């Protein structure tokens, strides 16, 4: 299936449903501490292009952090930056946001702080990160690699993994388990829609939360067969 079609499927689910599906499958995917900083209320989904940041050291490539990932990204990809939770220095900035928008990048995830938040808002780039800081990365942070395995808030993330993010947070999906996760998420979404329907119809919340909606969903599916 094409990436754009997968993205549209994933956008049907909020991060909570994806997290519940991962829990049911025994997969760790939700991370803590990263929130929407630029466009609250915007749900995003896509495939990860990764960036690994760390301390400056001899022998690192002579390129600006994030630039290689932007050039490697395809339209709709999401750039995910390992910044090791640092909030004393930015791991992403305004010119990078401008370049990302130009390339069609759907969003940026930073495990730490970033800067130029107003510029990113004006550009319409969703950024999920720790709160912003004005301090430049120059001389303080360097790019160690991109499109490589990274760690985000203690979670291992591979290039090509998928993710969903919204106001509740950021959830990663291993690429190899994507089909399973979508299948379970579809079941959870259908069950929650039935519960929401009954709540809106005036059914007591205690009755709704105690009912066996898994069985109700199964009966509905059998009726449609």
Structure in words:
By secondary structure, the protein is α/β, with parallel strands linked by helices. The chain has 2 domains: 3-175, 3-Layer(bba) Sandwich (Glucose Oxidase, domain 1), CATH 3.50.30.40; 181-224, no CATH class. Helix content is 37%, strand content 24%. It has 8 helices and 11 strands. It has helices spanning 3-10, 15-25, 67-72, 94-103, 117-123, 178-200, 205-210, 213-224, and strands at residues 30-31, 35-36, 44-54, 78-86, 107-112, 127-129, 142-146, 150-152, 155-157, 162-166, 169-173. Strands 1, 2, 3, 4, 5, 6, 7, 10 and 11 form a 9-stranded mixed sheet that branches. Strands 8-9 form a two-stranded antiparallel ribbon. β8 and β9 form a beta hairpin. α4 (94-103) packs parallel to α5 and α6 (178-200) packs across α8. The longest helix has 23 residues, at 178-200. The mean pLDDT is 93.
């Amino acid at each position: 299936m094409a990436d754009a079609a997968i993205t549209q499927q994933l956008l049907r689910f909020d991060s909570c449903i994806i997290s519940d599906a991962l829990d049911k499958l025994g997969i760790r995917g939700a991370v803590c501490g990263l929130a929407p900083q630029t466009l609250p209320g915007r749900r995003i989904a896509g495939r990860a292009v990764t960036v690994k940041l760390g301390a400056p050291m001899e022998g690192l490539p002579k390129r600006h952090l994030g630039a290689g990932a932007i050039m490697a990204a395809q339209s709709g990809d999401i750039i995910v930056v390992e910044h090791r939770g640092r909030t004393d220095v930015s791991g992403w900035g305004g010119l990078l946001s401008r370049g990302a928008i130009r390339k069609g990048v759907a969003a940026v995830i930073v495990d730490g702080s970033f800067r130029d938040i107003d510029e990113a808002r004006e550009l319409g780039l969703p950024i999920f990160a720790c709160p912003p800081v004005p301090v430049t990365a120059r001389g303080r942070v360097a790019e160690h690699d991109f499109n490589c395995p990274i760690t985000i808030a203690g979670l291992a993330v591979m290039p090509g993994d998928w993710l969903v993010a919204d106001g509740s947070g950021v959830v990663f999906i291993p690429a190899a388990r994507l089909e399973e996760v979508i299948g379970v998420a579809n079941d959870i979404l259908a069950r929650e829609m039935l519960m929401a329907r009954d709540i809106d119809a005036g059914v007591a919340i205690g009755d709704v939360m105690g009912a066996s909606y898994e069985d109700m969903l199964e009966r509905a599916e059998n009726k449609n067969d």
